[in-house]
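Example 3.2
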Amino acid sequence: MIKIYKIKKRRSIAGIFALLLSFQSCQSSRFDQKPNIIIINIDDMGWRDVGFMGSEFYETPNLDRLASEGAIFTNAYAAASNCAPSRACLMSGQWSPRHGIYTVRSSFRGRSKDRKLIPTETNITLAKEQYTLAEVLRDGGYATCHAGKWHLGNDPTTQGFDLNIGGSHAGKPGNYFPPYKNVELNPPSEDYNLTRLVMDKALEFVETTDQSFFLYYSPYAVHGPIQPVKELLPKYERKASWNGQDNIKYATMIENLDKQVGRLVDLLEATGKLENTFIVFTSDNGGVYSITKQWPLRAGKGSYYEGGIREPMFAYWKGKIDDGIKIDVPVTNLDFYPTILEVTGIKKPANKILDGNSFASILSAGNDMPERPLFWHFPIYLQDGNKETQDSIFRTRPGSAIRLGDWKLIQYFENNDIELYNLKNDIGEKTNLADVEPSKVDELLKILENWRSETNAPVPVKLNPDYSNSK
């Protein structure tokens, strides 16, 4: 049975000290080298698309096993609601305004006549000046491997990785079966699944590496195109749908992904490396609404409602993390960089701004992190709205969002529309409380505005002459 801990308001100094001593022991008599680090960052997997987060339709036994032996985060977030900006935040450890990647390709998404404002231009490549998580680990003595989707430039080996397996600027594969088209990997047979091939090559890296390693396992799955693993189709055709999760083809892709993670764990166990490996699992943004529903969360990928930014997440480290705890403290993928620095004992790089906080202290039951606001900034448009987004035209319009405690505020820049939700009572963000909680609106807006000033976050104000007031 999974134990559930509500994180206490006061930090247990003794508990934190004991946990840090436990982390440090990996570098002393018990192990001769620093812990291996694995980040598993799935593409477009929704908050409820795995068994350990409650799915009864999608089957993920290998992930569920790791999660049950580690710490599950119930309030984990991506720092952006679509692929490239989220990945840039994770790899840089910085909020979007600092690296300037706000969306994929152009920020001028959708029809010009529907955009009231001229959106902020977006970067599409992570600047070479960014000292990435991969670079700090490589310079700290780690062998580093990127496996799968990069999406932040043409070649991840220019930003800290010794080995690149199939990563480029591509945001999705042309196919999951040969020819893969825009993914430069050679299949061993005509029907070889790309997700399996990426793991094949990642396993070669793990098996042949003697030094401490960092594996950024970021498969293209389960991003579209939705192409089923045929041998798994009969199982899901026999299953009943559950709470909006009944996409049979997508289900086979999830199970296939889970199978590949199982292969990785099996190899780590067989080579004696699992015990000294720190694993963090998450997704880069919410599930695509037309493919998988995240109910009770609202909307999906591209939206800044919970369905677009809340992610499945767990941390695993055998013997170092309390088994089977659930942590409800809000965390974000910005926290990965400082957490991994603490776990590995590598000092924070001089003059490097890190916007996240280490969550190492809360991986032991009963410890906590100080309450802090989380921010999202999206001075752009994303087309293809649906019945759960703000409107049917855009998944999101330019704005910012903040979560502090149980409260979440969204501010849209076009007309200064404000939405306020109490997530404790309304996780589905159905009831806008802005009119009945004006003091809370003022409090959160002030914090949000100060943050935008501190990070030089651009706010679009220029009117679009093509706008036809069609909203």
